[in-house]
Amino acid sequence: MRQIKIYDTTLRDGSQMEGISFSVEDKLKLTRRLDELGVHYIEGGWPGSNPKDAEYFERMKNIPLKNAKLAAFGSTRRAYASVEEDLNLRMLIEAGTPVITLVGKSWDMQVHVVLGCSLEENLAMIKDSIAFCKSYGKEVFFDAEHFFDGYKNNPDYAMRCIHAAIEAGADAVVLCDTNGGRMPEEIAQAVEKVVEETRAIAATRPFDVGIHTHNDSELAVANTLIAVQKGATQVQGTINGYGERIGNANLCSIIANLELKYGYHTIGREKVKELTSVSRYFAEVANMAHDERLPYVGAKAFTHKAGLHVNAVAKSAETYEHLPPELVGNTRRVTISELGGRSNVLMKMAQFGLEAHTSSEQVRQVLEEVKRLEKEGFQFEDAEASFELLVLRAQPDYEPPFRLLDFMVVSESRNGGEFLSEATVKIKVGNEVMHTAADGDGPVNALDRAMRKALAPFYPELDPVHLTDYKVRVLDNESGTAATVRVWIQSTDGKSTWNTVGSSTNIIEASWLALADSLEYPLRSISKRRLR
Amino acid sequence: MRQIKIYDTTLRDGSQMEGISFSVEDKLKLTRRLDELGVHYIEGGWPGSNPKDAEYFERMKNIPLKNAKLAAFGSTRRAYASVEEDLNLRMLIEAGTPVITLVGKSWDMQVHVVLGCSLEENLAMIKDSIAFCKSYGKEVFFDAEHFFDGYKNNPDYAMRCIHAAIEAGADAVVLCDTNGGRMPEEIAQAVEKVVEETRAIAATRPFDVGIHTHNDSELAVANTLIAVQKGATQVQGTINGYGERIGNANLCSIIANLELKYGYHTIGREKVKELTSVSRYFAEVANMAHDERLPYVGAKAFTHKAGLHVNAVAKSAETYEHLPPELVGNTRRVTISELGGRSNVLMKMAQFGLEAHTSSEQVRQVLEEVKRLEKEGFQFEDAEASFELLVLRAQPDYEPPFRLLDFMVVSESRNGGEFLSEATVKIKVGNEVMHTAADGDGPVNALDRAMRKALAPFYPELDPVHLTDYKVRVLDNESGTAATVRVWIQSTDGKSTWNTVGSSTNIIEASWLALADSLEYPLRSISKRRLR
Asked: From CA B88, how far away is CA A487, in angstroms rounded?
């Protein structure tokens, strides 16, 4: 079982993504999580590029890693200057990491146009910079930027850059498809060549050929896999494929494919089970929604909708799952939808651990209620909190934490002026009636605020609860503004999130229903206790 | 230059995606757009599975296609039953399409576990069903479900299924990686085998080997490309990779890679330039956010963040772009908006025949107004009526047919009773003021009806005008119910249709803006005449 080393660059190349801005604290947290996951190298940042990265490396000096080696990233020295005077190289050494990764040019066009120096000078820059870092006892990797474009246009020069790095003592040369534009055959051919030409070196000392790809042609994962098949032993990428433009190669998919499909050893099968939680954790720290459609680790990766599929999955999971979701720490999810039937509802109830408390008469009731509501436009496939409430309400002893008596929402504009929305709400909790009013950025926002005002005195635990997403879909489009509208709401209390749904021809009613569920859901277990 | 045929299944397999629910009207629009794009086959749906698809095929009988052939999808006959009595096959024939695509099993495990019949019976099901459809003069494709899993586990039986299809007269066999779990090498080997074994048939009559992949291992595009390299000549996929779980193979990336990287002929290089707008159009009709990280066609595909990159791009675009964005109709992102560029606005105005009446100062005004509105959440991509009004309003002599003075909408429910919505509207036409009230199925419907009541005495030509579609999208999801909302409305007078847009943090205001445009648009030319 060949060992493939995983080099994570989420904290450096991944953070180039629009919308991502890690604080130093974030980076420290993520470093620890990557170390626990068992990746071999963690590229923490570019100490010469900004003070935040410099601070990160300073603080990392006091944080020992269990598995991974920390790498600092920087570029080869400037043209026609000495390494000793190069501030960038100086800061790389001072970062105090065991590994230094140096990026340099390997495409002749780039040397001319971007560096504006001679091809020979670029070779000297590669050699000098690597030798300089080696003289401090560092493990040094050479990231050959645009290697595959260079190899396509001037293979001789691209290979000379590789040889220059090796002669200077590089412990790995990493072949980069910087623009993400090369096809798998081109990657295969070039990697094969480099592996072949460096075989003699690799026999005498530890040496890796690495691969670093981008997803601009939707081939980052495939190009990484083919490079490994052709002999690459170090893989660079990012968690969730974060990165500039379309992103870097997604390590979650790569690790899963290498371990579970090809049988290579990367972080080990036990650690592969953490991929889903690591993926979610990174999304959370990056303050981005976790992409449901991420292969292997996304919420939809093992989700079944069509009735045909669900029946088949019930017979044999292999039928519509390429592997058991547990292997990557994910779970099977069956959506409740118009396309499914009784088997869907039962599987769903089992998932919530509700089936034990539910008689078969109640199951029948739930099923009928689901059918009725779906006909009215509800859709529970992505609104599990509303579904769970529906099941709870079918149980005879369920006592709702509040009941709605009256409400009114007014939206108006006078003399062409500002739009205003105001809501009044009358609710009953136990035997008490609350009547409140609030305004808001729109009718639903006003309603939300009036509801919270009414519930706050009874349920202080609702304080941290807030809406994080609100979606509206018009169902039977043909009927225009008299059409049925489905509203979907996501809420959080800071720890967990839940989704609810409402549907009506009246958008305010649909919003109200989803809103009420979103507030009832976190109270579902405490309400009984309180009110008895 | 080898011709690869593109088979789009967005309307069938793509619509299995959670969150997608196309109306019949949506499907007709998308069919027309796919036909214009020049794909070779459009799989419209599964007529036997639901009444909506049956209606779609009924209506398609009167809509001629210029380039594409329409395909109806269904499964092989049921086990131990006759084709004549098979309702599913009957409905496929009645769909009246030139092409029928039949899905059948080719994995022995599936035959045993899911169908519960003998391996021989499955072969008979394949043969009978294809022969039945062929007897009606149809072009028949056989989708070999789970082919690659079957080929891995029992290659002999998988190949027997292929041969059964061919013997029965199938015009193509499409090899499906249904679970999306197979690696490129496995795809390559199996496709090679099928191409080799069917070479003799392909020499005597038109015959294609097709490829149909899913993205569960993040390899759908790579697996499609390698199949083509190994001789597949039909490619199945969906726009934007829509589909169940992680999705189908993304045709946008596949077409771009095949045409621009490999030099195959698919829809032709001129049409490839439409990929970005097609991708956006499909997202819009699916009422989903356009994924910014879609390769080639996403907003971030040619966006640069890192200072290093931006400098280099300024020196030479090739430095950090794998190809010129114009080739796929995308743009390097410098401005914030889609229409933002002056040339875009001019192109759009020329399209409406408005540029002759517009001074360069007005063009500048329009451009600024577009930028301002797009920043507020408007999008004119699929709302050309609103854009045309915006240009008209920049002309000094434009007199709006009506002006809004006041309005108010109330939505309420008392004692847990029915939800009611009522609107009052005060508008000015010429020097007259109208004050009206109406109720409706929701606040927007009530507003719509009050507006019509007010305008009817002045503009009887509005009588046939009505809304046919109403969509709502929440833009910055993070802010919950206080988020910006975009409302899109489609209207018709029975002869032509037009689309309008409104945006606001208040859903009622956003609806009002789109609604007002939808009523002003058909009056734009007559209003002056009337009021003078």
From this structure: 35
